[in-house]
Amino acid sequence: MFEKKALVDNLADEDQVERAESKESRKKETFKDDLQSLLITPHGRRVLWHYISICGVFRSNFIPESNLMYYSGGQRNVGLRMLDDIIKTNPEMFMLMMKEREKESNNG
Hints:
By secondary structure, the protein is an all-alpha fold. It is built from four helices and no strands. Helix 3 (66-89) packs across helix 4. The chain is flat and about 60 Å long.
């Protein structure tokens, strides 16, 4: 359906490989910076928490109906990937997110 284009045409060409690695590195850094910009604000943390929660990260995805379980498992996988990105980017902000949700749930 969607094919990823190879980053290099010739793996023996060191310049192509180096440019491709540099491009991938910049993409990863940009993503990390973008995620960090969400994590440093209460608004961004609330939005991220909302999505990892509705993905079912904090609950079992067992459902007796197999098709629904596959669907739930897919949602949970997306949430787990988000959670992994958050923790790798800034673990302290994830801890703060948990404290904020606890405080919010205790205040009603």
